[in-house]
Amino acid sequence: MNDNRPRPTSLADELYELGYVIDVPGRDPEVVADQVMTRLAESGRGVRTRRPRWRPALAAAFIVLVVLALTPPVRAAVTEWFGVVITQGESARNGDSTVPGAGDGLSLREANDLVPFDPVVPDQLVAAHGQPDGVEVSGDRRVLSLSWNTADGTIRLDQFDGEMAPVFLKQAEHEEITVAGRPAIWIGRPHLLVPLDPDGREYGAQGREAETTLIWQADDVTLRLEGLNRAAAIELAESIAGT
Amino acid sequence: MPDESSEASEQVAVERVRAGDRDAYAVLVRLHASSAHRAAVLFGAGPDAEDVVQTAFVKAYEALPRFRNGAPFRPWLLRIVQNEAKNAARAAARRDGAIKRYALRDGPPADASDPVATLLSDERQRELLAAVHALPEPLQRAIVCRFLLDLSEQETATVLGCRAGTVKSRVHRALRRLREQLPEPMREAGNER
Lengths: 243, 193
Fold this sequence. Notes:
The complex is a heterodimer of chains A (243) and B (193). Chain A has 243 residues and is an alpha+beta fold. Chain A has seven helices and eleven strands. In chain B, helix 3 crosses helix 4 and helix 7 packs across helix 8 (164-181). Chain B is globular, with a radius of gyration of 18 Å. Chain B is built from eight helices and no strands.
């Protein structure tokens, strides 16, 4: 029973060993390959080496991505995010900022298949305004954006996998509130949304002025709702939080 | 861990699939089925692990046009596996009202004929697993990736969709918590990083 491996001397070594001894018997890879290939054949999916439909959406999706990259990991306490994510500063100049709609060209179902989480489509919005007018998924499939064009302007709901690293900066006066018992952020004035790269450096002039925004979490998904007033935004968030 | 020749055949297969040869995808599935399954289980897919793995491969196939050329396939695949496992666990929780399911809740079946298994006592394995499972999810996933799946920091960052620095700090916090919570091992603890 003896061998040359040293006994684990640190917790890290013990964990490596644990990985080594855990036995996770899986199917024969050959069988898995057969099953997967059968599923691909049944779904009739051809290889899509080109997706022209996506091209127009890509530029916009990139902006959405970096903008959303602002938002911290979903599990972190909101108070923990503030130092990193939101710096106090002047609210953006007053102006007629408008909420950009999401690109179209995707159905909800297609979008659902692309992102790694269960997208939230608020019943309230659908009841009031019908199916979203815009459905867009970022090029790296982490961010789903929905938008509704209403008589009062555009409502935009961005959502993304919550475990994204905090990589953005936002200059705005904000309010720490609670949505369904969980911390959330309300930014009640037009503000500057500044995209940062993954290392936290500003991208420069790619920021845009954003409308009133609520940021909150439901399950593992972080949501960012833009274009509703405080009461309406919170009501909407409460209606879907934790679903 | 894929060796050089499997890495080469992996890149060839990726190229061929992208060029329209669907059958070439089977090569990728064969290469990575075991590690995908292992990850699915460790990420909490429980009895859905097989389906999670299949679905992840199907989704990876569909997403292949967006796969960065020359990048390692496995961490990219495992990210999809991780997300699918999470979805499966969530769906199961809704369905069964279960809080969380872990395939390993009863402790790992250690193979007595494997000399490596003797390095950690059964009891210690159970303690470690219980402590890892008690960690908050992001910390737990970092530990699963770095140690139980033996991925590098960079690979872990790809799987978890965060920066390598975030992985480092999660692992650091996780180890600190584990040390606080775990009973001392029977032997003298060495110098830990």
